Amino acid sequence: MSDEANMSGADEDGFLVAEYALGLLSPAEHAALQERLRREPALRADLSFWQARLSSLDSEFAETPAPAAVWNRLEKRLFGTAASTGFWNSLALWRGLAGTAAAVAVVAVGVNIMTPRGVDPKLFASQLVAAIQANGTDVSFVAVYDPTTASVRLTALSGSAVPEKDFELWAIEGSNAPVSMGVVPVNGKIQVKIPAAALSGFGEGTILAVTLEQKGGSPDGKPKGEIVAKGATTAI
Amino acid sequence: MASDTADISHLIARCALRDRQAFRDLYTRTSSKLFGVTLRILRDRAEAEEALQEVYVKIWQRADRYVAGGYSPISWLVAVARNHSLDLLRARKPQGDDIDLALDVADAQPNPEQAEANRGERARIDHCLGQLEADKADAVRGAYLDGFSYEELSERHKVPLNTMRTWLRRSLLKLRECLSQ
Fold first, then answer.
1. Which of B69, B91, B110 is the last residue of a domain?
2. pTM score over 0.80
3. DSSP of A129-177, one letter per residue?
4. Residue B80 and residue B167 in one domain
């Protein structure tokens, strides 16, 4: 600043700090001063002076209610779920569950602490869940066992429908033959009644698998297509 | 007003402890003010909404940086919103650490009289701005409240850029003397 050439260095710093507080510095000057502020307490004291004095102008910012959508987006971004989304519908939660076994454990702990409204924690504590997925495919589901109806609530997390084909869900207990639980949609939720043949042994460790079968499912009750996702049920 | 300040201070502290309900309360209590800040500086509703969201993400993530002291906690929040809006306006690289400098009360001014002094601040800055010529006071207010750059100020006041710079620097010198009394 040639017109300020008679200023001493301290004065020049004083201006820079005031200009910084007002937001008048160029991006480069701003970054350079910010770097110095970190190291020089005297400059920070000077900045505090200006910030404190200027902040008394803050009352001139007119209060303007923000649209509700901002809060909803914010909550979704920070906490992965918007308030209006029910617990069972939280895709983020299910995606979390569908991670590794470790992720399942972590999320299970988190879920217990959160104690979601409308869900009996005791009932939930005895819940069996399975993350159903496989390497090399983008098909993944989360299954939650509902003992009161002897059924499995299945939520598709990812995957896309294949023309002329259907996804079929299987329950596998130990070395027994897979028992078909029927055709399942790849882009939604479904409640699947556990077939009598699978119900007696259904519990922790039961493998749930999804295969890609001909339209309508395997005709003879035995899996024919490749396994696109599978997972073992775990108590949480 | 004093209890209001204590409440907001408390809510920020609860946010640092990851209390989501406190964060929701803080948002309910303060978002109109901060939206007023982003809207006034950015002058675009969609951008101001986006910025507001980013500002509260910062507040949630860095609530532990707030040091309850003499200054009003709402000043800290406004500073976060104002700095973020100015970063966007100037296309400055967003600096996460800016928040540390938003109101650096901790090591600069551990002054117990500060809170008392703050109550008279509004009257004081009005008085000191009143000592400046009207268009110069307007320039200072335009920079602080509207985020005007030197270029915008020189256009608005129809003076060359360097003249504006000299104006403002002289005004800041006077202002500093007056505000220090």
1. B110
2. no
3. EEEEE-TT---EEEEEEETTTTEEEEEEEE----TTEEEEEEEE-TTSP
4. no
